[in-house]
Amino acid sequence: MASRQQEKEARRQERLERERAAASAAQRRRRLQMASGGVLAVAAIAAVAIAAASGGGGSGSSSHSASPTNKVVAPIPPERIANLQAAAQAAGCTLHSYPNFGQVHTTGTVNYQTNPPTSGPHNPIPASDGIYDPGKTPAK
Question: Is residue 65 part of a domain?
């Protein structure tokens, strides 16, 4: 009878050992899955950070860019130019200076002395943006 008891105990010990081994293997798999998930998350965050830092892409190989009207726009000068005339010339612009005709508010009709108006008497309430039908332009 003792041998039957010993066999049962030996099988029980073998079963317990298999269960411990299976639990250990499952725990090891979970640790590996968590570690690989963490590595993937860090890689994804790094990729997003690199993409954001690099400006998001685009070809950028051309020194000129096309505007919405398909005209070529002059590039911004690479360095700040303190001389306004030289900066305008470097940007391909013409610099115009107009005298100051004052800044008085008026409710009457105004005839501006420059086009576009740069200074002078003007209506205190600005006209709204938009395109006006003929005969319905805002008062000057």
Answer: no
